[in-house]
Amino acid sequence: MKLLAGNSNRTxxxxxxxxxxxxxxxxxxxxxxDNEVFAVVEENVRGEDVFIIxxxxxxxxxxxMEMLIMTDALVRASAKRITAVMPYFGYARQDRKTGGxxxxxxxxxxxxxxxxxxxRVLTMDLHAGQIQGFFDxxxxxxxxxxxxxxxxxxxYPRGDDLMIVSPDVGGVVRxxxxxxxxxxxxAIVDKRRPKAGESEVMNIIGDVEGRRCIxxxxxxxxxxxxxxxxxxxxxRGATEVSAYISHGVLSGPAVDRVTNGPLKELVIxxxxxxxxxxxxxxxxRRVSVAPLMGEAIRRIANEESVSKLFD
Length: 311
Ligand code: R5P
Known about the structure:
Elements: E1 2-5, H1 10-20, E2 27-31, E3 37-41, E4 49-53, H2 60-76, E5 81-86, H3 105-116, E6 120-124, E7 139-142, H4 145-155, E8 162-166, H5 172-182, E9 185-192, E10 200-205, E11 212-220, H6 224-235, E12 240-248, H7 254-260, E13 266-269, H8 276-279, E14 284-287, H9 290-301
Parallel strand pairs: 1-4, 4-5, 5-6, 6-7, 8-9, 8-11, 11-12, 12-13, 13-14
Antiparallel strand pairs: 2-3, 9-10
The structure holds ribose-5-phosphate (R5P).
Enzyme class: transferase
Organism: Brevundimonas naejangsanensis
EC number: 2.7.6.1
């Protein structure tokens, strides 16, 4: 088997390679003067089981194009099987028509990856589980919940006052899974989006007075959802509010909102490479999913079940 990395998250790719105790395959993914992507795999991959590690995070279109072009290079180099490993699958939130004459971009991106030649996909915490069905190739959608739950156990001692909070109705199933795992209560924020990129808290379902709240979600993007939910929880008597989020998209004002807002702490995974602004933010901590992704890759390569990784 071979591990190949694009430029989107080399730190995670190296950590996965270290977990598997194998080197990353020598390859170059670079730009021509006009910014077109060029990829060359500098080792023989004929007949190999190849895993390309590339999150389609910011800049999403460049990183997606790198993934497609690396896949094409591998197809033409006669790799036996190509797995697109996308710790963060961008475009996932565009998973339905939101109005007349709008696209379903998540499906288009799934088609692009498949048509480029990927044989299977390994990803984590898709915005909605059913996006797996957008791929007509085997797709494993790992969950970061076991990794994050372990971190919560180590940093937020269990007590009757611990409460898991879903910051919107769409995330209830995910939050309920975590709450059951921690044997904690569950509350739900009734969020409304007056327009794209803005969020407004309408109501909170559950009594959060005197509770230590942990918001649990798949994505923190502009930080609006989290900060508004945290404010509403504090207003209703929560003693503190932290957040555990799988994918730190952290665009625009997000770091500022976390730094100066009511959140005690934001914990994200390393599915997305972060700039210094995030790495140096005292309120943001990262936990690695390299062992989880590495173990999934090892099991896929050995044709073993990955179900155990959901326990
Ligand atoms: C939406 O349903 C997602 O689960 C996140 O809650 C959302 O993407 C977060 O966006 P933002 O941080 O910009 O409010």
